[in-house]
Structures are given as structure tokens and as C-alpha cells.
Amino acid sequence: MNSEIINNLVASMQRRMAALPHRMRPFTTEYGKLPTSFMLTGSRGCGKSTFMLHHSKGKRMLYFSADNPKVMTFNLYDFVSYVFMNGYEGVIIDEIHYANNWSIHLKALYDDFPGKQLWVSDSSSLVLRSGGADLSRRFVPIRMPLMSFREFLFLQTGTLYPTYKLGDSVLPVEPSSEILSQFALYRQMGSRPFYSEGDFEARYMAIMDKVFNNDIPFFLPSINENNLRLMRAIVGSLASSSIPRVQVSSLCADWGVGAEKLYQILFVMENVGILKIVRYQNDNKARSTGAKMLFDDPCAYPVLKADEGTSREAYVVFCLSNAAYDIYAMRDETKGDYIAIKEGNAINIEVGGKSKKPKASDYVARDNTDYPAGNAIPFWLLGMMW
């Protein structure tokens, strides 16, 4: 180990810092004081590296990714110790799960270098559970969501509008033709900041491939090529179906896997941000496919040319989940599609197009509308909640 490695990493970090966008998503710039040690998780492409680099400005910190081939040859503890011995006040480590025995090394670094800043990231909060060492009381977990319409508007226009809460009588912005045009673009490609770089569909599919080929095998080591094909078949089935569910028995028979293995696969697909499994309230069964199975990112639907009706439901679930609601499927669909619970308060929500009736729900979320009317809320307004 020598100083040339650090010099190369410093140069690489400086290039990254110089390439940071002029406008960053508000989640990054509005975030307050960071803890000394934290683990940042979130879907690939949501802006985790940008977040950490932005907050490192003015600090003597060294950034590197654990999958950097020059770093992977070293013991993580020894390498970071060497960095600290060279006067750095902290390190930023992306893709932490690529480092061998990473959790044991992080625990030792935290204990042996009190006061040093250890900022690490990965694509799923499952990484905290998969570590052999107890990191939960040492590293504060921070979850970075996909972008809201509010954030997308800021990146597009430079104007940061207030957040919206269900029931607010004052709109954060008037739904002009420009706002609605921006919302249409957001629905197509606005969930991740890299949309502005072009070729969104190709980049999106590349991210999905990396999740399948790199992330899921880490969290489910016994996975094989047949299982990977099964996961792609699940994605294809959900994209082509108007009924957002999978049949466990037929999948097991068609792909030669046991039910337990299939449930493990679905669990990991949900936790790496591919799926969103919506369960009935009080359904705590570990072996469950839930009431509805949606794509976690609503932009998956236009990319995969998927069903529009299911896309609407996925978008509403996406918005409410990121606004800190717990979402459950409604058992009695005459009362609505979903139950959303926050701080002990439960509301029923119906989802549909611009003429959708509220049934017996508290709110009806309507697509292709501009202003709220009574208990009807336009889709674009739900995207302003975070």
C-alpha cells in the first residue's frame, strides 16, 4: 500500500466533485446535519453518491467505491486505517457490500477510530441485516427515496415549491399547462436524476440488469441462473398483466423451484426496489405474495410498456409510501382500493382516471385532472408530498 493509490483516488474524487450538477435534488440540499457515521440506502440511480459528495464539501474526506479494482485487493480495515493515518477526517465508501467481510471491518473501524467520519452507501437496507457485525447502533440508517414530482420540478425549472399534505386547502402551485406538461414528463422518466442525461429507457434497463446480476445474488447467495430467469419472467408477467399478482403454484411448476425459494426471491426483489408488495392489513405471514404486486418505481411501467390501470395504482402507492404512509390493500373494494395510515389516522383511497367515482372512500385519486374538487385529488398533487 502506498500514497499513489490515495493520490489516484483523490484525483478521481476531484473529477466527480467537478462533475456534480449545478442543481441537485432537494433531498440532498435540504438535508440537515449528518451523523458522524451513517449508512445511506436507496435504489440504484437515485443520487446517493451525489448526496455524499455534496455533503463532503469543506471536509478532508476521501471517496471511493468498494468495487474499485484498485481498492478491492486490500483489506478494508487496513486500507481505511492507512487513509486515516494520512490525515483524513473521514471516508465515503460506495457499494459497501463489494468489500470482503465489510461489516466486521466497519465495526472495527468505528470502534478503533472514534470521531472519524464513516459514510457508507448501498442499494438496499437489507445490507444492514446481512452483515455479521452489529452495525445498527453504530451507523445511523438514512433512506434516500426516488424523486418526487416536486423535486423533478425543481431540477427542471429551478423553483422549489412547498410540499403538499392531504387535505391542504392551499395548492403548492397552480396547475398551469406548463406544470401539467412537466408532470407528464415526470411520469415517463422523472423518478431518478439521471433522466437529464438522455437514453432513460436504456439506462433504466441497465440498472435493472445490475440489480438482477449483482445485487440480488449478494442478498440471496444460493441463487442460480434459472432463478435469475424466473425473476425476469415475474417482471414480464407483471408488465403484461392487468391483474397485479403472480400465481405461486404455476411459477413453481413452470420454473422448477420450491415455494420457499420463490418467497425468498420475491422478498429480495421487494427489498432491492424492483417490486412493491401491497398486503392486506394485519397480514403478517412471511410466505405471502400480498394482495397486489406492483413495480416499486412507477417509471417502470412506461419503460416496460405495461398496463396503464396498474400503473396508476403503482403511482399512488409510490406517492403515499414516500409521504410516510403505511399502505394496505382494501379487503372490501366497494370502499376503495387502499387504506393509507399515518400517525394512527387511516384513510380510504380509490384510484382511477379523470371520471373515477369515489365509492365510499375518503379520497379518490384521479389521473388526467388539474384541480382538486371535493375529495378528488389529481395525480400531480400527490407527487408534491415529499
State the gist of this model:
By secondary structure, the protein is α/β, with parallel strands linked by helices. The protein has helices spanning 3-18, 26-29, 48-55, 69-72, 76-85, 102-112, 126-130, 149-157, 177-189, 200-219, 225-240, 248-255, 259-271, 300-303, 308-322, 379-382, and strands at 37-41, 61-65, 90-94, 117-122, 140-143, 275-278, 292-295, 326-329, 338-342, 345-352, 363-366, 376-378.
String of helices and strands: HHEHEHHEHEHEHHHHHHEEHHEEEEEH
Proportion of residues in β-strands: 5-15%
Indicate the percent of residues in helices. Answer: 40-55%
Shape: globular
Number of strands: 12
Q: What structural class should be given to the helix and strand makeup?
A: alpha/beta
Give a short account of the largest sheet.
5 strands, parallel
Distance between the terminal alpha carbons, to the nearest Å?
45 Å
Give the SSE layout.
Blueprint: H1 3-18, H2 26-29, E1 37-41, H3 48-55, E2 61-65, H4 69-72, H5 76-85, E3 90-94, H6 102-112, E4 117-122, H7 126-130, E5 140-143, H8 149-157, H9 177-189, H10 200-219, H11 225-240, H12 248-255, H13 259-271, E6 275-278, E7 292-295, H14 300-303, H15 308-322, E8 326-329, E9 338-342, E10 345-352, E11 363-366, E12 376-378, H16 379-382
Parallel strand pairs: 1-4, 1-5, 2-3, 3-4, 10-11, 11-12
Antiparallel strand pairs: 6-7, 8-9, 9-10
Helix pairs in contact: 5-6, 8-9
Which terms would index this structure?
single chain; alpha/beta; five-stranded parallel β-sheet; five-stranded mixed β-sheet; globular
